Amino acid sequence: MEEKKDQRDQWEKAYRNNEDFFGEEPSELALSVIGTLEEEGAKSILEMGCGQGRDTFFFARKGFDVHALDYSAEGIERIRAKAEEDGLELGLAVHDVRDPLPFPDESFDAVYSHMLLTMELTEEEIGYVLQECLRVLRPGGLNIYSVRNDHDPHYGQFLHVGEDMYQNPMGFVVHFFPEEKVRRLSEGYLLEGIKEFEDTSPPFVKKLYEVVLRKPER
Ligand SMILES: C[S@@+](CC[C@H](N)C(=O)[O-])C[C@H]1O[C@@H](n2cnc3c(N)ncnc32)[C@H](O)[C@@H]1O
């Protein structure tokens, strides 16, 4: 096992070199869940690991009150500049999700993250993040996330750097999820769905699980 590069620097560099690393269009996950969020009557969304904001802008333009965070200052700065140009109001923060979420209990109707929990986070860290999400969600609120799964063409490829974690030739560490891991990590939530889908955004096709969790009503 070789030394890993710091992943935050890796994202800063990627976003500095490319204004739209994942493209400008909303992700397949955002398109898949927008109907559910609308039907649920959700108004406020916390988006974690928002990158350069392809989904942030999609939700904000649909009228949701969006708070978005990422540990990449480059990503957040890009969103801030674009939001100003478009006259959109967003809550933005540079924040590492391994630290406590900077919001009071029961602040949001929904929490959303596309391909964040599938980054270089241990299972223990992911468990912590999911419990923090539970705290900031209102009772009955949804936590919708996606993770790359063990059917992904990159699973088991390249450099093995930890349990279910592999570093690809671009230098990014990815944590791949067997279905069992999703179930294990749902503690405290009602698990409403696990569905496989593909993300076709550049630079390659990825296989993921869409996971829908609900905070139980009191
Ligand atoms: C695969 S990218 C997805 C970006 C965005 N959700 C999208 O689909 O366009 C993962 C994002 O998670 C962010 N990230 C990784 N680890 C993080 C952490 N510990 N805290 C906050 N953000 C993190 C990265 O900076 C990156 O923007």
Helix % is 25-40%
Number of helices: 6
CATH topology: Rossmann fold
C-alpha end-to-end distance = 46 Å
Using the alpha-carbon principal axes, give the shape.
globular
**Class from helix and strand fractions:** alpha/beta
Q: So, the CATH homologous superfamily?
A: Vaccinia Virus protein VP39
Q: What's the CATH class, please? A: Alpha Beta
Low-confidence stretches: none
Task: Give a count of the beta strands, DSSP E runs of length 2 or more.
Answer: 10
Ligand identities: S-adenosylmethionine
CATH architecture: 3-Layer(aba) Sandwich
- Which series of helices and strands comes N to C? HHEHEHEEHEEEEHEE
* Strand composition percent: 25-35%
What integer is the average pLDDT? 96
**Overall number of structural domains:** 1
Radius of gyration: 16 Å
Could you give the order of strands across the largest sheet?
A: 3-2-1-4-5-10-9
Describe the main β-sheet briefly: 7 strands, mixed
Describe the fold and architecture.
By secondary structure, the chain is of the alpha/beta class. The chain has one domain: Rossmann fold. 30% of the residues lie in helices and 29% in strands. It has six helices and ten strands; from the N terminus they run ααβαβαββαββββαββ. It has helices at 7-17, 28-39, 54-61, 73-86, 123-136, 179-184, and strands spanning 44-48, 65-70, 91-94, 108-114, 137-148, 159-162, 165-167, 173-175, 190-199, 206-214. The strands form two sheets. The chain has a seven-stranded mixed sheet. A three-stranded antiparallel sheet has the order 6-7-8, with no helix packed on it. A hairpin with a 2-residue loop joins β6 and β7. The radius of gyration is 16 Å and the shape is globular. The termini are far apart. The model has no long low-confidence stretch (mean pLDDT 96).
